[in-house]
Specification:
Elements lengths: L8 E5 L3 H10 L6 E5 L5 H12 L7 E4 L5 E2 L2 H16 L3 E6 L10 E7 L10 E7 L4 H10 L2 E11 H11 L1 H12 L2 E3 L2 E3 L2 H5 L6 H6 L5 E6 L3 E2 L4 H7 L8 E3 L2 E7 L2 E4 L4 E7 L1 E5 L4 E5 L8 H8 L10 E4 L2 E8 L3 E8 L7 E3 L3 E9 L2 E5 L2 E5 L4 E4 L5 E4 L6 E9 L8 E3 L7
Parallel strand pairs: 1-2, 2-10, 5-11, 13-15, 14-16, 15-17
Antiparallel strand pairs: 3-8, 4-12, 5-8, 6-7, 6-8, 7-11, 9-10, 17-18, 19-20, 20-21, 21-28, 22-29, 23-26, 23-28, 24-25, 24-27
Helix pairs in contact: 2-5, 2-6, 5-6
Length: 429
């Protein structure tokens, strides 16, 4: 591992806060902070608020920036590269970790190395950054690979917090000013730091690469060959996954016949493939995707097209995480909706009331403590209750195992905004 590593902090969008909290719990990591952005503004502002957080107690530590979706198959090699780069970063260098390219990949940006860094000694090499290059075409990528002077741009960085902020002030003063204001006016609720909306939304959007690394005189690239993959597409999961003798990587209830070099992930149903090759097939409760494995980078075009058509799928998942657990939409019609609700042990929903819908609850697992106006009842498996329209109600799980119940809503309007909350324990706005 890396010595002197403090508890991590996470910068993410407000809408992802409960998923992040749950995943940190699963890997038994207690974060020092979870900082929430009201809107996405790319990586440079996100790292600025991370640097401000790191310096909040009067310290000036090194910060290591690691995107959340990367896979490192040889973590010890990464740790060695970090330890090697530490003295350089302590001396004011801004380190980027450049991946030694395995193939002429056209889906990544590249870093061209310059001269060997004078202070790089013992345990590795470091080079001045000569130039950042955009994603190349195939022929250019092949020439990069052949020259040996180019690395994939991993998006992983390390530098002293104050050095990053001073460089940002030099090249993007307006961005830093917005980040400082949003951080200074942030609110703290239940372990989350909510950046102030108005000032952060005014912030210019830019990446670390464009805002700082391409402009600074102190950018240094440390080569890294650690089995890195940014898992930026579905085909990347095929790349890193365990494959059968026909080159298929299969997850879930999958039946394949005469199928080769294909990635299939089935989450809710059986998926069968016959006589196909080089496909990505993803089945979820929300949607089904079928695409050529070499075109899986183009999936990002689908959400923008859905938004243009006003489709709700661009905004909502069928399964929604909440601080107390989650709910999943199972079926719906004009005047009804069916949901599966899971409540964590010891957790409680806010006391609430609906103007337009009534609810039936059927417990299928665990124990439910239910308050209806002034009446309190406890239900176990196969028991049910009815919540009439306009009645204030609360659902709690007093047990030691997750509570699962089926909720049948009926009424003239079933939108999620038909909730009047009272004494919400999670401080939601």
């Amino acid at each position: 591992g890396v010595t002197d590593l403090a508890k991590p902090f996470v910068v993410c969008n407000e809408s992802h806060r409960f998923i992040v909290d749950e995943q940190l719990e699963l890997v038994q990591q207690k974060p020092s902070a979870i900082i929430l952005e009201p809107a996405g503004r790319n990586t440079a502002p996100a790292v600025a608020v991370a640097a401000l957080q790191a310096m909040a107690k009067g310290q000036d530590p090194l910060i290591l920036i690691l995107p959340a979706d990367h896979v490192i198959q040889q973590p010890k090699t990464l740790c060695k590269a970090i330890e090697f780069a530490k003295p350089l970063a302590m001396n004011g260098k801004l380190i980027t970790f450049g991946i030694v390219p395995a193939e002429p990949e056209t889906g990544y940006g590249y870093i061209k190395r310059g001269v060997l860094e004078e202070n790089s000694e013992g345990g590795g090499e470091a080079f001045k950054v000569f130039r950042f290059e955009e994603k190349p075409d195939r022929q250019t990528a092949e020439s990069y690979l052949e020259s040996g002077d180019y690395y994939w741009n991993s998006g992983m960085f390390m530098f002293r917090a104050s050095i990053y902020l001073s460089e940002l002030e030099k090249f993007e003063p307006e961005m830093l000013a917005c980040c400082k204001e949003a951080f200074a006016k942030s609110q703290h609720d239940n372990g989350f730091t909510f950046l102030e909306k108005d000032s952060f939304t005014r912030c210019p959007s830019n990446s670390i690469d464009y805002a700082v690394m391409e402009n600074t005189e102190n950018a240094v690239v440390v080569p890294l060959d650690a089995g890195w993959n940014d898992v930026g597409s579905w085909s990347a999961l095929w790349d890193i996954g365990k494959k059968d003798s026909a080159g298929n990587c299969l997850k879930g209830d999958v039946f394949c016949n005469d199928t080769t070099n294909t990635f299939v992930q089935a989450e809710t149903r059986m998926v069968a493939t016959i006589g196909v090759k080089d496909l990505v097939v993803i089945e979820t409760a929300d949607a089904v995707l079928v695409c050529d494995r070499n075109k899986s980078q183009d999936v990002k075009d689908i959400p923008s097209n859905l938004k243009k058509r006003g489709r709700s799928e661009a905004k909502l998942h069928r399964k929604v995480s909440r601080p107390w657990g989650n709910y999943e939409s199972i079926d719906q019609g004009d005047r009804f909706q069916v949901k599966r609700i899971t409540v964590k042990p010891g957790a409680s929903l806010s006391a609430q009331m609906h103007h337009h819908r009534a609810e039936h609850w059927v417990v299928v697992k665990g124990t439910a403590k239910i308050t209806k106006n002034d009446e309190v009842i406890v239900l176990s498996e196969n028991q049910s209750t009815y919540i009439p329209l306009g009645v204030t109600h609360r659902l709690e799980n007093p047990g030691k195992i997750p509570l699962e119940l089926i909720e049948v809503q009926s009424g003239s309007y079933l939108g999620e905004d038909d909730i009047v909350r009272f004494d919400d324990v999670y401080g939601r706005r």
